[in-house]
Amino acid sequence: MQVDGVAYRTIWPARDGRAVEIIDQTRLPHSFETARLETVDDAAHAIRAMRVRGAPLIGATAAYGLWLALRADPSDAGLDAAAETLVATRPTAINLRWAVDAVVQDVRPRPRSERAEAAFAKAGAICDEDVAINRAIGDHGLHVFRRAYAAKTGDGPLNVLTHCNAGWLATVDWGTALAPIYMAHDAGIPVHVWVDETRPRNQGAALTSWELGRHGVPHKVVVDNTGGLLMQRGQVDLCITGTDRTTASGDVCNKIGTYLKALAARDNGVPFYVALPGPTIDWSLDDGGQIPIEQRDGREVTHLTGMTDRGRIETVRVTPPDSEAANYGFDVTPARLVTGLITERGVADASRDGLLGLYPDRARPAAE
Ligand code: MRU
């Protein structure tokens, strides 16, 4: 995607061949800054501190993190330690483990002298694949948007509500939930996006709004509890979100608050779509209740950071000093509330049969 006329991905190898570079998402929307990751610890810290975030992008960062680790220590022990460090950074998004496993399986059979180079190539392939997948999600989602716009009664744009950030900043490029929005906008469908602020870290207010603004997509940021009212008033034509892990039965784990939007959508007859790449499906799980839910520092709830009118970045406390906070990062939307799963292979019902229709290669062999 373009930032001030320059095409960016969210992660790329540094020109000097000694690091990878990222867009530091903790600085957005107030400042666009890139950062170098030179060691596996830099990569792990970037994921944990959410300088990079979003399920596909943390997978891509971990893949490059293994390259950085193997440059320093290409032994089996070095590989295993780095994989463990990276997988431990964030527990919910399955793409992280998927990417780490993909690199480990590729490099382990190779001689030590070839491992770093192979990891670098594999990380690059994972990034390229992510971009291709998201483009395909955008194409399939565009059909959904076209149909929704054609079916819309009354004037005005197609009103879409999204939660968190599942745009290009959450992936290597294009995004998942935002890819159809970009494609619809580029195809001339008038789209207006309701952007949930997405407390506590405000990925909607800070990142989705920034992305949409750079692309010229009309949008409004709303506080997290607004969606129900908008849906009751007929001001939302469809909802679309990303996901950090989707079970083989179609339960969708995504940023905290997604479930409540899906409930409101069902109550008001608003279609609720989830966009996801194949690597986000956890084929080992049938029940979304088994997905580990990340709990983060309560300080993300008790404090807010933003820019003052004088242009200074400041952090302030919004709760009484003696109030504790709980900070659950994700929730699970049961498959029954999901209208469709938009993948790189097409749109599936949120069910085991629906997913297997698109990914027949994942069918478990029948028990003997
Ligand atoms: O905590 P985050 O910012 O990493 O959470 C991101 C989300 O919840 C996204 O919706 C999800 O990763 C899908 S991104 C394509």
TrEMBL record:
Catalytic activity: 5-(methylsulfanyl)-alpha-D-ribose 1-phosphate = 5-(methylsulfanyl)-D-ribulose 1-phosphate
Keyword Nucleus listed: no
Keyword Amino-acid biosynthesis: yes
Keyword tags: Amino-acid biosynthesis, Isomerase, Methionine biosynthesis
Gene3D superfamilies: translation initiation factor eif-2b, domain 1, Translation initiation factor eif-2b, domain 2
Site (Transition state stabilizer): 164
Ranges that cross the membrane: none
Enzyme class: isomerase
Listed pathway(s): Amino-acid biosynthesis; L-methionine biosynthesis via salvage pathway; L-methionine from S-methyl-5-thio-alpha-D-ribose 1-phosphate: step 1/6
Gene Ontology MF term list: isomerase activity
One Pfam family it belongs to: IF-2B
Active-site residues, as the UniProt record annotates them: 244 (proton donor)
InterPro entries: IF-2B-related, IF-M1Pi, IF_2B-like_C, Initiation_fac_2B_a/b/d, M1Pi_N, NagB/RpiA_transferase-like
EC number per UniProt: 5.3.1.23
Chain positions recorded as substrate binding sites: 53-55, 90, 203, 254-255
Function: Catalyzes the interconversion of methylthioribose-1-phosphate (MTR-1-P) into methylthioribulose-1-phosphate (MTRu-1-P).
Family stated for the protein in its record: Belongs to the EIF-2B alpha/beta/delta subunits family. MtnA subfamily.
NCBIfam families: eIF-2B_rel, PRK05720.1, salvage_mtnA
The name this protein goes by in its record: Methylthioribose-1-phosphate isomerase
Species whose genome carries this gene: Rhodovibrio sodomensis
Gene (UniProt): mtnA
